[in-house]
Amino acid sequence: MLHDVLRTLRQRPYQILITTHWAPDGDAIGSSLGWAHYLRALGHQVTVLLPNAPSKSLQLSMGYSASFVRIAEDSPNLVEELFQHAEIHFALDYNSPSRVGMALEPLVRAFAGRQVLIDHHQQPDPLFVEAYSDTLKSSTSEMIADVIVADEGWSRVDQACADNLLMGIITDSGSFRYPSTSAQTLYTAARLMEVGAEPSVIHERLFDSSSLSRVQTMACGLQSMQIIANGNAALMSLSSADLEGAGYVSGDSEGLVNWGLSVDGVRVSVLLREDASGLVKMSFRSKGDHDVNEFARSHYAGGGHRNAAGGASKLPLDTLRAELVLKLTEWLEH
């Protein structure tokens, strides 16, 4: 499949649309921008369509430009037109159309052109007939680098492409500390550095330039931490009132859930974040063999990876916290 897609891309310039998941993180932005810069170097017309705006730090990513990055939430009238004009659609860093938000999901499902999935999450939706899926990869950004190698196109990787792909690898590998980091991951990172990507610059941009609202959001979440299941799990929450008081903006709670795993003995960490409508977004992280993907999928219509997953619930925040205490205790004490 992959080689057939690459042959097609070499035939002539195409109108290409790239989408990624709601609340785009470092890998979503890194893979989308990295792939976009490479495709533009091949002569294609490329638009990156994000469901909603990423965090401010991600908007500072190299080559992030309003000339080809569009936000669906900000330009609803443009969205349908972009899908109508696209000849090829690349779905990056998500396994199901449900992950792109209500505005984009029906358009992804109804797209009449060629549609290609590149993703590392489990259980890709069968809608994507052409799919490059590898759950063992550290990130979709690493997979994009593999695709470029398969296309024998490394000479066309410029600094913006390399910077974004390395950013995606760094964020989704936990700065190379997660089990998904392989020797190939490090080799790919080294090659991206040779092109001009700088890990220290990326790290400073993402992690060492926090706004006051982010610091206040993180502090609020940490103060809410409850150690449960005989010390095996950490549970944190941010109510809509907490977020308002902290001056929360999109992306401010990124990485907070990982702090739970830093507590000695904790194997599973959960963060609950309540939005203004009352819907609670859920982030799950784990160590070792504790499969939070299966837990989130079974209980909260979620999913993701074995050690990193998400979900959502319409239960009131306090009710959901109490429910999770019971469910996590039962699961982890089996």
Description:
The protein has 2 domains: 2-207, inorganic pyrophosphatase (n-terminal core) (Alpha-Beta Complex); 212-332, Diaminopimelate Epimerase, Chain A, domain 1 (Roll), CATH 3.10.310. 42% of the residues lie in helices and 18% in strands. The chain has helices at residues 2-9, 26-41, 56-59, 76-85, 105-110, 140-150, 159-172, 183-195, 199-207, 212-223, 240-246, 256-259, 292-300, 317-332, and strands spanning 15-19, 45-50, 69-71, 88-92, 114-119, 130-133, 226-228, 233-238, 268-274, 280-286, 303-304, 308-313. Strand 7 (226-228) and strand 8 (233-238) form a beta hairpin.
List the helices and strands and how they pair.
Blueprint: H1 2-9, E1 15-19, H2 26-41, E2 45-50, H3 56-59, E3 69-71, H4 76-85, E4 88-92, H5 105-110, E5 114-119, E6 130-133, H6 140-150, H7 159-172, H8 183-195, H9 199-207, H10 212-223, E7 226-228, E8 233-238, H11 240-246, H12 256-259, E9 268-274, E10 280-286, H13 292-300, E11 303-304, E12 308-313, H14 317-332
Parallel strand pairs: 1-2, 1-4, 2-3, 4-5, 5-6, 8-9
Antiparallel strand pairs: 7-8, 9-10, 10-12, 11-12
Helix pairs in contact: 2-6, 2-7, 6-7, 7-8
